[in-house]
Design brief:
Layout (H helix, E strand, L loop, with lengths): L2 E7 L8 H10 L4 E7 L4 H9 L3 E5 L4 H13 L1 H5 L3 E6 L2 E2 L6 H8 L6 E3 L2 E2 L2 E3 L4 E3 L2 E2 L3 E5 H4 L2 H9 L6 H17 L5 E3 L13 H4 L1 H8 L4 E2 L7 H7 L4 H12 L4 H11 L2 H8 L2 E3 L17 E5 L7 H12 L5 H10 L3 E6 L5 H19 L18 E5 L18 H8 L3 E6 L1 H19 L1 H17 L2
Parallel strand pairs: 1-2, 1-4, 2-3, 6-12, 14-18, 16-18
Antiparallel strand pairs: 4-11, 5-13, 6-11, 7-10, 8-9, 15-17, 16-17
Length: 471
């Protein structure tokens, strides 16, 4: 089968990162490839694409993937595209492959009755954000179109007439949720490679909700980059919030996919707070007692930093003081953790789940966030990333090739995680097992309370009373 892949790419800095290169190199033996990017590539990245033998199309950053596919098709022309037996439209939001691609293409080639197919499907749902009723559809991150449909007037009219989106939501409404129904209504037959109909009543979007299940048991060769940085509150509305970490651990231990190269790329392009939430960068460390003092941090390339903790109420101050007292007692396990996790750059104690402590953290973050955003190339999100607010941290010196930034107090402590992130390292917090158990129980109490309207009303009443008393 003669196959063409149009691979859509976008990077704000004009780079073709390691995960994109990995995917392109896996596709090249199976297809001719046109690499279309929204923007201008850096010289070295442009040379890499051209060196693979793929064609390159650089265009203005308009129309999202819809605009890129449309321009690529119209640039190639109908006659040239019609010479292929199959056209694949794929975008960089898929990471992988985690297994060889030839079996997937062979399995779908053995189904000649199909006119178009996709990797995965999204099931029907109601969504005000995406135009109301969203029909079941093939997801646009990977669509394959066969000759009968590819050479039809309908296919070319679709792309000539499509409205270019101005937002992610418009891209979903005008293309992703429309493509399948549009061509199915004209008699073209379709299916997805990954079979998930048994999950339709469980998850509307299985590739996001249970990616390890699709990879480990259903032959899916790709997963979504967004698994690792999607808004965590959205995940908690759809799942138990463990999907990303379960996926990462599976990729790391059970596949040869270089998942840490993906993490480095994501650290460059996405807020640390979002990555930390989805990947649960919180570890359990036991108190090792008096024998901890003998750890040779310098030999391990580590340094212990101390500075003034965040200013808060007396209870928070007491908890942070206890944390500082036991800093040395966790060093052996902490040093072992750095040896185990090569991308760990900063490790610090988790803030206590005392409401005033979390409020102090949020207030401080809001006061420094805008200034910090102007100092670092890595994006700074709305939520505070992990930081050593307790007044101490263990850092990997290799995470700071230009030197560890000076930190005199809690207001400057976010310099450490943001500088490490800019250099491809993440920051994590740790807690003793008893604190993690208490956190889980507090979350359970909060979830139960939120499910009971009377409890919510009672809590609001307490909050109003407290505010009035302290005016």
């Amino acid at each position: 089968m003669k196959r063409l892949v149009i691979y859509f790419h976008y990077d704000a800095q004009g780079q073709v990162d390691a995960p994109c290169r990995y995917a392109v190199q896996a596709l090249l033996p199976l297809a001719d490839l046109l690499f279309v990017t929204n923007g201008r590539l850096q010289a070295a990245d442009r040379a890499w694409v051209q060196g693979t033998g793929a064609r390159l199309l650089e265009r203005k950053n308009t129309g999202f993937d819809v605009g890129a596919y449309r321009e690529a098709l119209l640039t190639l022309g109908r006659q040239a595209v019609a010479a292929y037996d199959e056209l694949v439209l794929m975008n960089f939001t898929l990471a992988g492959p985690v297994r060889p691609l030839a079996p997937m293409f062979a399995a779908m080639q053995a189904r000649p009755e199909l006119d178009f197919w996709g990797l995965t499907r999204h099931y029907a749902m109601r969504s005000r954000r995406f135009g109301g009723q969203v029909p079941e559809h093939l997801q646009s991150h990977f669509l394959a179109v066969r000759a009968r449909m590819l050479r039809s007037d309908a296919f070319w009219q679709y792309w000539q007439q499509i409205r270019l989106p101005r937002s992610y939501e418009e891209a979903v409404i005008c293309h992703e949720t429309r493509f399948t129904a549009c061509f199915a209504s004209q008699g073209y037959r379709w299916d997805s490679y990954v079979a998930t109909d048994d999950l339709a009543l469980v998850f509307v979007n299985p590739i996001m909700a249970c990616p390890r299940e699709l990879i480990a048991h259903r032959g899916c060769p790709f997963f979504k980059r967004r698994s690792f940085f999607t808004p965590y509150a959205d995940e908690l509305r759809r799942t138990d919030g463990q999907a990303a970490r379960i996926l990462y651990d599976y990729l790391k231990t059970c596949t040869e996919y270089p998942v840490d190269d993906l993490l480095r790329a994501l650290l460059r392009a996405h807020p640390l707070g979002a990555l930390a939430q989805n990947l649960h960068w919180q570890y359990l460390l036991e108190d090792c007692g008096a024998g901890a003092a003998g750890v040779d941090l310098a030999a391990a390339g580590l340094r212990l930093l101390r500075f003034a903790p965040v200013q808060a109420d007396a209870v928070t101050a007491w908890y942070l003081e206890q944390s500082t007292k036991y800093a040395g007692a966790v060093l052996p396990q902490a040093a072992a953790l750095f040896a185990q996790e090569p991308l760990l750059g900063v490790l610090c104690p988790a803030m206590p789940r005392w409401p005033a402590a979390l409020q102090a953290q949020d207030r401080l973050w809001r006061s420094v966030r805008r200034d910090l955003a102007g100092q670092y190339t890595a994006p700074v999100g709305e939520d505070p990333p992990p930081a050593p607010l307790a007044g101490w941290a263990l850092v990997r010196e290799a995470a700071f090739p230009s030197g560890i930034p000076p930190v005199s107090g809690a207001g400057e402590c976010w310099r450490l995680p943001l500088a490490a992130q800019q250099n491809g390292f993440y920051t994590a917090v740790f807690a003793p097992p008893v604190q993690a158990g208490a956190d889980a129980d507090q979350l359970t109490c909060a979830l139960r309370a939120s499910a009971a309207p009377t409890a919510v009303a009672k809590q609001l009443g307490r909050l109003v009373k407290h505010r009035l008393l302290h005016r």
